[in-house]
Amino acid sequence: MIERLVLKDFKSHEDSDIEFNQGLNIFLGEVGAGKTSIFEAVSFALFGRYAGSVHQGGLIRRGAETAEVSLTFSTQAGRYRIDRVIYPEKTQQVKMWVLGGDEWQLAVEGATAVSKSVEDLLNVDTSTFLAAIYASQGEIKEMLETQPGKRRERLDKLLGLDTYENIWKTLGDAKTLVLTELTHAQDQASGVDVLEQQLVALKTRITRNKKEVGQLQASLNRIGEQLTTAEQRLKDLDALRSRLTTVRTQVEGKVAELNKSNQALTALRERLQKAVDAAQVFEQNQAFIERETTLEAEKRRVDTALQRKANLELLLQRDVGNLTQARERQSRLATELKELKTLETELETLEAERNARPALEKAQARLGERLDAVKTDLVMALNEMDNQKQKVARVTELGECPTCLQPVPDEHKARIRNETQGLITKLEAEYTALEASQAQVQGQLEEVRKQLERAETADRNYVATATKISLLVSRREELEMVEAQLQAVKATLDDTQQKIGAIPETPETLNELETWLKEVHPKADAAREAERLAAVKTDLEALLLAEENNHTTLQGQLRTLEASQTGLEETYDAEDHAEVERRVRALQDDRAKVLEGLARLTASIDDDRLHVETVTKGMAAKRVAKKTVERLKAEDSVIEVLRRSLREVVQPVMRKNNVLGVSEAFQGFYQELSNDSIDYAAIDEEGNVDITRNGEPSPVNSLSGGETTCAALALRLAICSSLTRNQLLLLDEPTIHLDEVYRAKLRDFLGTHSFEQLVVVTHDNTFDSLPAKIFRVEKRRGRSVVAPLRMGGD
What is d(CA 351, CA 493) in angstroms, rounded to the nearest whole number? Predict the structure, then answer.
């Protein structure tokens, strides 16, 4: 039983929370209100599928990023809740919960696993649910209106019999697969004799190659002994030649070192002579360095004094400008202060006018109240005159008393008219007097309003004038400040002029110093360079002595190396060395050839052994393939028996039994729903409907629209009842094509039939009197709203 459905941003439902009752639940609403979406949400929550044609992304309400569906239902096994979150990319997040005690516990997670669990719990698969339990809008008459040749296919789908046809096709595909594997296995099992001959030939070749390997190994040992002796001799000769080469290189190196030593001695002697000459130059020009230092210090002092003098002159110019601005400001403030006296007199006049404002406002309010009272009296007088005139008209035209509305004798009519006319004349005089009073009060009120406007204007002008006076008063203080500023600026000007006069330096003094520096600078640079060269004289003398000692040592080392070179050249024989090298290369070539032969034979033996393993495995695989052939032949026989049994026994028996049960339920339901008495109503195995009324057959195409709808509805009820044992039925707009009489029959049927839970979606108010939980579904600003109304019949 469905207990609760919660929708968030599902199609047109932004936030709907629906509590279902056991028995009959009815959703009323206009077309397009979002009723069918409730059924689609139930189907989608249970199985992840629905009868609609909208893609999954279209289930999300426009403007939302995801949609959520939560369905709570119960079975004999317990209470369950399914939560599905729908994403635009055709993905879902699905969880199924089971109630354990007072808490929900996660039972299954994942779309496929949850749908399979629901099918097991309800004992109904997705196709059966959509075909039998959920009668979607417009599909109720589909069975009867389809072509005769397709009725059996439609009936098989509704009754779940197409599952057996799918199984038969699946078995056919399995048979094809088994035959393909059988052919492959037969191919694998052939050629065992050929493999045995290959195995004998390979073992023979391996034995022959092993013998050749032994012979080559003996030759390799003999060549190795000879090569070891020759390589030792060659090693000794290489060492002797290497030593001779080393000594020759050392001799050449010492000769090069002696040459470098000679060049260094020459260079040191030249540098030492330059240092001696530089010392003489430094003694001659040392005084120019001191002269240059003195001139540069004097230049910096004069430059600093000139910079300070320039800054003071800039300050003097700034103070002159400030003095001019202060004088202009003093003149402007004096002119503004002349207006202060006039403004103070004007302020006194404005203050008197603004003080009269409260009294004028009270007078205006008093006159306004008086005017409203006069207007009220005018309206009352006018209404009274109209009332009296109506009385005169009633007496004159209808002959009735204006007070009690009873007929009036003729002798009283004139009296009543005269009395009433006199009252009307008096009321007209009062009305005229009230109009005059109204005009008088209106004139007084206008005069007060004008005076009040002048007072308001004076109030505004008073504030502006007071503000201006306050500003001018502050100008007095500002004028005093300006005058004090003038005195300060004048004092600053005098002080700055005195400081400028105290600085005697001029740009000409600086130019004269720069000229002297240009004359002294080259001579001072020459003295500093000579001082630098003279400073290294002592170091150069020490270096020269050390280099002379090094030169003597190198000459002794060269004589020793030349003697060692002569002895090695007498011992080493180059021709003997070349002969030993040729012998070693020949032995190495012989060893390489033997090793190549050994590698070739070893690789051949390894390949043959690998081939032997492959052939052995191939023979084993072929023996397995023989067993596979026998097994596949047996499987093919079993599949063929199953296909014949399914086609010839199971399908006919299941169709007959299921159709018989549906046919019996169909007759009962149709008799309850039909408006006429029926002798017989049944459905055959081809899906054809047979109805007999008053002893005469009634073909489906001869039925009226309402009768056809009732027959189709009875057939859907019969299928649902047979497949689900009256547990649950969802009807979407079942009253389409039904007139008032048939809608009443359907209402009575739904109110009495014993479905455990029946949910109806309709725009028809025929069902609102049934004992059911009734919901109203409305579209408000593009969003579907579901609200429970009442229990039917309340």
Answer: 50
- 389-392-393 Cα angle (round to 5): 90
Angstrom CA distances, 97 to 71, 86, 93, 105, stand at: 10, 18, 13, 5
- Check if the beta carbon of residue 779 is closer than 8 Å to that of residue 12: yes
Instruction: Return d(Cα 372, Cα 28) in angstroms, integer.
Output: 57
Taking Cα atoms as reference points, which of 484, 482, 468, 486 lies closest to residue 337? Answer: 468
Q: Which residues does 1 contact at the CB level (< 8 Å), separation at least 6?
A: 20, 22, 73, 74, 75, 727, 728, 756, 757
Query: What CATH fold (topology level) applies to the domain 340-501?
Result: Helix Hairpins (1.10.287)
Tell me how far apart the alpha carbons of residues 143 and 123 are, in angstroms, rounded to a whole number: 24
Domain boundaries, the chain: 2-127+733-791, 340-501
DSSP E strands, 594-688: 680-683
Q: How far apart are alpha carbons 775 and 569 in whole angstroms?
A: 124
Counting Cβ atoms within 10 Å, is residue 337 exposed (0-12), middle (13-18) or buried (19+)?
Answer: middle
Q: What pairs with residue 773 in β-bridges? A: 25, 791
pLDDT score at 114: 93
Residues of the chain with pLDDT under 70: 50-54, 131-132, 135-146, 148-149, 151, 157-162, 192-193, 400-406, 408, 411-412, 534, 723-726, 790-794
Q: Which two tokens stand for residue 509?
A: 């003094």
Cα gap 138→670, rounded to integer Å: 19
The whole-number pLDDT of residue 454 equals 82
Task: Provide the terminal-to-terminal Cα distance of the chain, rounded to the nearest Å.
Answer: 24
- Per-residue confidence (pLDDT) for residue 793, from 0 to 100: 46
| CATH hierarchy code of domain 2-127+733-791 | 3.40.50.300
Q: Are 108 and 83 in contact (CB under 8 A)?
A: no
CB atoms within 10 A of CB 341: 9
Contact 357, 462 (CB under 8 A): no
- Does residue 777 contact residue 28 with C-beta atoms inside 8 Å? yes
- Encode burial over 57-72: b for 16+ CB neighbours within 10 A, e otherwise: eebbbeeeebbbbbbb
Q: Which residues contact 158 (CB under 8 A, 6 or more apart)?
A: 131, 132, 143, 719
The answer to whether the beta carbons of residues 37 and 11 sit under 8 Å apart is yes
CA distance 172 to 160: 20
Pairing of strands 728-732, 757-762: parallel
Rounded CA Rg of the chain: 64
For residue 70, which phi and psi values (nearest 5 degrees)?
-130, 120
pLDDT by residue (tens digit) across 38-64? 989 999 999 887 666 557 778 899 889
CA atoms of 388 and 386, how far apart (whole Å): 6
